[in-house]
Amino acid sequence: MALYEFLHSNSIKIDLALEARDLIRGATGREIPGVIEEKQTFRHGTVTIIKIMDPKAEAIMGKPQGTYITIESPDLRFKSPEVQESVGDVLAQHLKNLLKISEQATVLIIGLGNWQATPDALGPTVVKYSLITRHLHLHMPQMVENYRSVCAFAPGVLGITGIESAEIIQGIVEKVRPSVIIAIDALAATNISRLGTTIQIGNTGIAPGSGVNNKRIGINFQTMGVPVIAIGVPTVVNAAVIAQMAVENHNKITGNRTPVNSIQIGQLIQELFKPFEGSLIVTPREIDDLILNAGRAINRGITLALHPRVAREDLEAVLC
Amino acid sequence: MALYEFLHSNSIKIDLALEARDLIRGATGREIPGVIEEKQTFRHGTVTIIKIMDPKAEAIMGKPQGTYITIESPDLRFKSPEVQESVGDVLAQHLKNLLKISEQATVLIIGLGNWQATPDALGPTVVKYSLITRHLHLHMPQMVENYRSVCAFAPGVLGITGIESAEIIQGIVEKVRPSVIIAIDALAATNISRLGTTIQIGNTGIAPGSGVNNKRIGINFQTMGVPVIAIGVPTVVNAAVIAQMAVENHNKITGNRTPVNSIQIGQLIQELFKPFEGSLIVTPREIDDLILNAGRAINRGITLALHPRVAREDLEAVLC
Amino acid sequence: MALYEFLHSNSIKIDLALEARDLIRGATGREIPGVIEEKQTFRHGTVTIIKIMDPKAEAIMGKPQGTYITIESPDLRFKSPEVQESVGDVLAQHLKNLLKISEQATVLIIGLGNWQATPDALGPTVVKYSLITRHLHLHMPQMVENYRSVCAFAPGVLGITGIESAEIIQGIVEKVRPSVIIAIDALAATNISRLGTTIQIGNTGIAPGSGVNNKRIGINFQTMGVPVIAIGVPTVVNAAVIAQMAVENHNKITGNRTPVNSIQIGQLIQELFKPFEGSLIVTPREIDDLILNAGRAINRGITLALHPRVAREDLEAVLC
Amino acid sequence: MALYEFLHSNSIKIDLALEARDLIRGATGREIPGVIEEKQTFRHGTVTIIKIMDPKAEAIMGKPQGTYITIESPDLRFKSPEVQESVGDVLAQHLKNLLKISEQATVLIIGLGNWQATPDALGPTVVKYSLITRHLHLHMPQMVENYRSVCAFAPGVLGITGIESAEIIQGIVEKVRPSVIIAIDALAATNISRLGTTIQIGNTGIAPGSGVNNKRIGINFQTMGVPVIAIGVPTVVNAAVIAQMAVENHNKITGNRTPVNSIQIGQLIQELFKPFEGSLIVTPREIDDLILNAGRAINRGITLALHPRVAREDLEAVLC
Fold first, then answer.
1. A2-318 is classed in which CATH architecture?
2. Least CA distance to A131: which residue of chain B?
3. Beta strands C107-111 and C180-189, pairing class
4. What residues does each domain of chain A span?
5. What is the pLDDT of residues D275-284, one digit of tens each?
6. At B226, which helix (H) or strand (E)?
7. Which of A47, B49, C290, D72 is 20 to 30 Å from the Cα of D217, by its Cα?
8. pTM of the model
């Protein structure tokens, strides 16, 4: 039984398009029709652009039609301003291509997740250090002549506010009227080595049930009325994935070929995790640092993409 | 030159109705027409109810017509669950009188201020520990049969989001459609002994320019379309007030009677504080603890007022 | 292959005496000679007292000779002051039995771990809220007539200070000259349901290699020259344990009986976790709350055990 | 009545040698014998080196004989990596001159103060981001060939631990046996414009009663047995100073020349501040940011001074 089948049978969402493609290809042994891929390298990593071209590919991939850009940089795990700059520059360039907005367009940055729970704090962390200018455009426009109007917001999580993130964002969108939303969210990966080292940028927003805190309502063009660019970084691995990988590896050693019902083993694992059902996470001890490192690269990328004429000191400020 | 004249001449807002009344009476030497007052005592303090009855009294007091209830409890400064309970019970009773809503009415709690700056963190702190039920009413109503629908939100501050708090709240109000808003905010006092020991409840919302972070737009019935109950606690004293009080005291000792131009000394003091103009605060070193103590009393009061049938364990949970 | 053999073969330390006993009995099918056990119940849980009586039992159990008291309270997971009080009272009574010190004896509370990494923050959290009196005994003795002299300290972790916790504590012990040390530490469990719900009190201190941050040097009578009472709560499960449990369960379903080399599967799992080797933790998302809940129960227990004549308000203060 | 006389009469310690000199010169109108001064400028500020040469100068200045280097950089207030680098480089050069230690010497960095109270958190903040190598020198020496052995520690404050900072440091010094201590501490200034913008480096350690938290025992060569270099940044202004300055300014305007007893007005001001006596602080709202900015400059300076062959990426890491 492959990991893909296990995840699929147990309705575990795969957040990264790159992982979805790899798992599906691994399970089927062939290319996915309607999915185009392009690969690039840069000083500190690689960039993979996956395009889901038609509804059939959408159905197989379990992700909406659109473009998914994945930056992989294993060095991002270490606290290195050089790597953060390098990744940020690559992110800026790809983000700019997706954004396609005029200089006058207002941008709303949304930091999803819960700042009180570290592995879920990526969004609020990015918002905290964002370069914000909208209030200056309204009250002292001469100070921000070289800058676009940008505002940023962290809507919290349903369990703390009692309000869906999507509802809150809709309310703000109606007041601020941005041309585009950039939504930052912590993701779950199936591969441990991706934690803190992979950044996905997508132009299809955030689907319901995605991210570390499953959202009930999507945050996308359909629900917001404006394009939503999603930027995500895996910060946890589902504990069920660890269990499944262990079983797979064990079967390899022992040569065990007994066919197993995916749903059955899913239930078994769920039984195992019952006391904290749904909320048990696997994360590295240094997750706080990983989030700061990735957050800095993302803030550099967003700042460069939104404000091409940013002063050096303002750009450096989002890095600290 | 009295403190009142000094504040007035230099357009420094007085957040507490009780202080406004005392300062005006001190300056004029007589009762303010159109202002009614009632005083009560309880185990750990006193309650003063001030009603501003007509537009003339509104103009003199510099505060909108309405009811202002001030709970003073010097013991609230110390970390004492007993005092927190006592103050919370008194707050609950007065809050209930102001609320006048049906059991079915949804309530939105708003925590104004910046959780990153301690003296301004009262609102977000109260929100963090609030008893939230709206999401359960939507998804598992049987769990919250004895509870009203309540949601809570901290909109942050203009300098961090680029969006006015009032705009954000308006957006949320349009989605959530609450019957009433309870807005929590840190206040400035003119008297040091009030820091962390005085709670004001008012039914006129929050005026523009009030609170520790001066809001540009008011948060009140006019801007929100629903009644706004404001709950505030002084956490800072304006540094200019310290200066002014020192001068007054000094004049008393030296018998100095030279008449001084209020605006002139205001400018002098402003000059003194120039490097951090507007942002220099006077606060006790233990401000974090003061905010936690007052926050617990407020959360107990709100919980008892909103959920009369609250289980003992849920009530205790907002205290820890 | 049983979990015990797996842990043993891969030199994974079992922090809880109760788990060690259960796993060894499960593997061997019989009682462990030289290990005495007693069980009690209380309103919100059970207490198991395990005594390791001789060197042979010490070798089998992998834990030094002494007394290990385990309080199990599944309700401790929920934010309930009532449960915290109940568990704290039971803890106080057993702690008092272990302490056996005069009223004049000074006690040093040590909070091991890293306050910046949530699952490791139990020790510093307990220290933060401890009732400290040593400085008052030195400078205003009349204020603390009813209280013992207590000081508390969090030595941080090797990776942040560059100094072993044990070295720092030795230095402080030489200055403070306490009669006994109470050391608080976060533990690892093999059973998910123990996270935040089990408290172990032992009179043998902390062995090298124990706890969430493996200490190189033990913190015990041998290294400190005074008795060390250890109080611990499991906050993480080793990811390898999850893997191993999944394999075991899978084998049960598939009836796989191929004998597997423990070391071999240990290596496989290590390979799987390589990118964050040693530092990958499994923890519930709500770990912050679990630590606060357990920390409050521990602080109540310590306070009651050390200060039998504590005033109600001082006792309540450590709960908030 | 001059500010100096006021401070002197009321036993308020002046932390900055530069301010002491200015106030004494202002009060006496002439140079202080036995005090030598040298001034330099750099891209983002000035450096003043004050040497107190003999016991007579020591008595007048109220500070022990030794060297006090004051870096003033008004731009340090703004979040600018360029300024932080510039100030850090200047600090490194002067620190190196004071240190005079061999490459093999171990250095102990001590972060005084309370990380829970922002204006007092400078020391713990610097420790948190320090480049620590002592544990690597002990366990993997080949990794740190180009680095000196450095450890770092934040002893907390008396009110939280019940133990004097000096006692704790003595205990650690006896274990670690450093060649020199670098102690970081938040200071009080008499001039608002110094908050977060002035760094004092001195080779006489920390006198009793200095810093934001008055220490009872000094941290200096006499108490520690090794040289203590102190690095401090003002983060608060004593509220009494604000009061005094206001009175002075007021007297200037009104031409009031009534002679006032310094002690008398000191008592008056103390009366004014009674409810939070001793603990009322005047600080800018953005104090968190000021501490981060100054902390980064200090960490760069210390790192460059201690590790001349530091790799670029390690140096950058202490800045983020």
1. 3-Layer(aba) Sandwich (3.40)
2. B160
3. parallel
4. 2-318
5. 666 567 788 8
6. none
7. D72
8. 0.90
